[in-house]
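Tokens as discussed.
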């Protein structure tokens, strides 16, 4: 294996040197996302659940909260890019035969433009507070209650002010903004992002 990769070593080293030099010239400071550890995620999920259970919540707010919970929990367990996850369509998802998870077969996204696909599975987690499968099931139940069709559409869809759910992908910008709002409202904001 070492012999096979040996011819690539000089090119890789020169690429890394050029890349580093370019970043230094552009005065780019490499930052790491502030991590969101499980205790903070638990607190955030409890906060969102309290908001969902509020008697004064509107149908649109309930839809947005269940969508965002399902999106964030799926992102947590998939390790996927927020922009790619927003592009997932319902025909790209299969339920495991034992009903303990889902198989995603992404065929389009920011990093999937060459015809390749990204397959990943998400199993039911024993803790329902952070379980992405339970969150998706709740989200789909709310979808059905609001009589919004999910077949052959984007799984995570945005809304417009007229309280309509539009058939477009949820952008990573929108998801990031929603996460920021939730973290601030829950007094948990320390600079966390979708990459956290």
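Sequence:
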């Amino acid at each position: 294996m070492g012999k096979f990769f040996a011819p690539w070593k000089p090119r890789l080293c020169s690429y890394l040197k050029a890349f580093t030099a370019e970043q230094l010239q552009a005065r780019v400071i490499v930052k790491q996302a502030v991590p969101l550890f499980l205790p903070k995620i638990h607190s955030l999920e409890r906060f969102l659940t309290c908001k969902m259970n509020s008697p004064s919540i509107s149908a649109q707010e309930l839809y947005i909260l269940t969508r965002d919970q399902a999106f964030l929990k799926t992102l947590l367990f998939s390790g996927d890019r927020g922009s790619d996850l927003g592009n997932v369509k319902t025909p790209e998802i299969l339920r495991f035969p034992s009903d303990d998870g889902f198989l995603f077969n992404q065929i389009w996204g920011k990093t999937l433009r060459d015809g390749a696909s990204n397959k990943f599975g998400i199993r039911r987690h024993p803790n329902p507070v952070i379980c992405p499968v339970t969150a998706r099931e709740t989200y789909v139940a709310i979808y059905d209650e609001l009589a919004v069709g999910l077949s052959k559409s984007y799984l995570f869809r945005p809304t417009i002010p007229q309280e309509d759910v539009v058939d477009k992908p949820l952008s990573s910008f929108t998801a990031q903004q929603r996460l920021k709002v939730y973290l601030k409202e829950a007094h948990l904001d320390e600079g966390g992002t979708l990459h956290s």
